[in-house]
Structures are given as structure tokens and as C-alpha cells.
Write a structure and sequence with these properties.
The protein is mostly helical. The protein contains 3 helices and no strands. The radius of gyration is 29 Å and the shape is elongated. 4% of the residues are buried.
């Protein structure tokens, strides 16, 4: 993308094309982090017995949620698994949106260099004077 094309698009859109793509990528990353957090909270709210761990001998405690002291191996496994999922999703999003960025800048957010001199934005147009009325 030449500087003329980028300047034209920036003036027309009122932001740089790259900042639009960056905002899209940041929004997707935010959604991914929220999903990971929800998965982690969901897994920690499941009783350890439903996750396949043997019940504690102390039945006086409420076994409806997972804590570090109840099943440290379950807590460590969930944290490790969530971390692996987060790493996998981050890598996939980065790779996919790198392709999206290249495609969008080459094919969507561009103007052919031959057309740039012929393009005129609305705020550069000179208003024509009102027609003269012949009724005087």
C-alpha cells in the first residue's frame, strides 16, 4: 500500500486501515480470554468426583467446589490444561489473523494507485452556487 493510498483511506475512514484491523484482532483476543476464564471457572466449580477424582475421607466439607486443599492434583491438572488451551487458542488466533490482516490490506482496504488522482472526498468538493432565479 502506497503512502498516497494509505493517506486517502485514513482521511476517508478517519483512522488508519491498520488500526481497524488491530481493533478487530484485539476484540477477538478479548473474547478468547473471556472464554478461557469462563472455562476455568466452570471446571473449578465442578465437584472433584465428577471430574474423576476419588472422594475425600472427610465428608463434613462441602464438596460442591474445587479448592487447592481438597484435591491439589485436580487443581494443578485444571490449571495446566487451561494454560495449554489458552496457548493453543492464542497461537491459532495469531496465525489466522495474520492471514486476515494481509488479505484485508491487499484486497479490502485498498484503492488502485491509478484511481487515487481521480478520487475526491466529499469535504473537498466545492459547493456550486444556487441557481439564479429569473423572477424579479
Amino acid at each position: 500500500m502506497t503512502q498516497q493510498v494509505e493517506a486517502l483511506l485514513t482521511e476517508h475512514l478517519r483512522y488508519t486501515p491498520l488500526s481497524l484491523i488491530d481493533d478487530i484482532i484485539n476484540t477477538v483476543n478479548t473474547i478468547v480470554y473471556r472464554a478461557i476464564e469462563a472455562i476455568e471457572n466452570g471446571l473449578f466449580s465442578i465437584p472433584p468426583q465428577q471430574l474423576g477424582y476419588s472422594p475425600d475421607s472427610d465428608t463434613s466439607r462441602d464438596a460442591s467446589t474445587l479448592t487447592d486443599s481438597d484435591h491439589p492434583e485436580a487443581t494443578a491438572e485444571i490449571e495446566n490444561g487451561v494454560h495449554q488451551l489458552e496457548t493453543l487458542l492464542e497461537a491459532t488466533v495469531d496465525k489466522t489473523f495474520d492471514k486476515f490482516e494481509i488479505y484485508a490490506l491487499r484486497n479490502i482496504l485498498t484503492v488502485d494507485d491509478k484511481l487515487v488522482p481521480w478520487m475526491r472526498l466529499g469535504h473537498y468538493e466545492v459547493p456550486s452556487p444556487p441557481p439564479k432565479s429569473s423572477s424579479r
